[in-house]
Predict the structure.
Amino acid sequence: MHECVINIGTALPKSLKHLTIRDTSFGSQDSPCLTSAPGLVTLEVADCHGWTPLFKSLPSLVAAFINTEYVLKGSSGNSFNGYCGHEQCVVCHGIADFVFLEGLSGATNLELTAEYFMIFRTDIEWCPMFSRLKTLLLSDWCMAQYFHGLVFFLKHSPILERLTLEHCTLSKQWYDTTTETYKPKDKFLVSKHLKAVEINHVKGDKRIHLLLKVLAFHGVYSELINFKEKYTS
C-alpha cells in the first residue's frame, strides 16, 4: 500500500502473507484504525501519518519493520497532557486493542525506528510481553527517559538472542532526558539466551559509556557487545 487511506475496521484477507505500507494515513480525522490481518507473516510500515497504526489478530506474524518520522495521533504525541481525545484510548480508558506494540508482540524479528520516543511511550506503559522475540533492532528513541525503551524490551523479551542498537544521531533531544546516572526502579537480568549485542553509533557519541553501564547492570557484559562506529550523524 502506498499513499492511501486505511479506514477504521479494516479486515485484510487471511491469504495475505506479506504487507508493506508506505506514506499512508491510518484512520479518519476523528477515529483511529484497528486492522485485522490473521494470515500476515511479515509487516513493514514506513513514514505513515494520521493515527498510530493499530493491528489486531496477527497470530502468524514473524517479522515486523516499523520506521516512522511522525508523531502520530493516539501515541501520546498529540497530547502532552496524556489524554489523546479519543474515548477508546488505551491509556485514558484501558482498552488493550488500542495498543500499537500489542499487535506486534508475537513477532520473532522486530525493528522499531522512530524520530520520537512518544510514539511508543504509551505502549511501553501497557507492558506487552514479547514472548517469541529473538532478534530486535531499536533506534535512538530507546535512549530517551533514562533508556526506558531499551530497558522495557530487555525485561519483556524472555528469549531474546540478538539485539542491535542504531544510534544514528547526536541530536540534543536524546540528551535532555538521559543523565549521567542510571537509577532503575527494579532489578532484573536479561534473557539467558542473549548471544550478541551490536551497537552502531556516531563517532563522539557521549551516551555510549552510560549505555554500557545500563547493559552491564542488567547482565549484558562486554564479551557479548560489538561496536560499529559511524562518522556522520
